[in-house]
Amino acid sequence: MFVLEPEVAAQHMIVPAPSSPTIEAGEGRARRWRRIRSLTLPYLYLLPAIAMLVVWTYRPLTQAVQLSFHSWNLLPTSEMVGVGGDNYRRLTEIPEVGDSLVRTGEVILGLLPFSVILPVMIAFAARGVTGRMRNVYQAIIFAPFLVAPVASAAAWRWLAEPEAGAINRALGLDVNWINDTRTAQLAVIVITGWHVVGFAVLVVAAGIADVSPDYDEAARVDGATRSQIDRWITLPLLSPSLVLLTLLTVILSAQWTFPLIDTLTQGGPSGATTNVYYLLWEYGFQTFDAGMSAAVGVVAFVLFGLLAAGLMRLAEKVTFHDNR
Asked: What's the pTM value of the predicted model, to 2 decimals?
């Protein structure tokens, strides 16, 4: 057997080249750069959306909070005068502020049947509609949501006329629905509900479509009826959709009613339809008290934010239990 001498073997051994400090430093910088890039790249994709939020949401909100501590009549030539917390103190002393909060609560409660209860009933009743008729049904039910509020207000004003209106003729009544303090708020709620019910029905229908048919089949095997399946299976699984509709009603109800109020009643008669959102507009653009308008807006933002936070916690619990 051929054996190399130790000296010859040492000459043929492959010895790894020693790594220089420059190469190690370059590899370390490359690893750090890759790590930084992997951490920051997702935020770069979010940067345009964050910029829009800052420009159109957080910056105006900050300016509104700042303006609520000043007195200003919106004229560019006039100077804002700092008044401290006087605007908020005045809010507690003006009765119409408390009245507008009560009316806002009435609007929310009045719209919940149109945004939650009635859409559930319609969506359950229309599950048997299939094929092309389903598309026709969805188009008809969603059409009111696409009608401009000002145009619908003009049509409803004609329908609600005291003497020649179709509503009084159909009901056999003689009621001034829009200009009576007892019915003006109801009229605004019903017209607004007519607008939003189609959108709510589609949300509920989408929620029903997401429910697995396996639940129905298992319940039918156990002898459950259609009403029992709807009551104990389908309806609980719709809880996230119903909480979403409730949240939208709480947050947006005052905004939904604003164009109708401005077109039909202008907050009247005798302030019967003035809610928080319309009161904010009155202070800002009728009495030109921008500080009070901003203060009302900040208070409304805080109140609606607390309600939204509570509903979001409820939605998280409902979703967690459904997933479990």
From this structure: 0.81
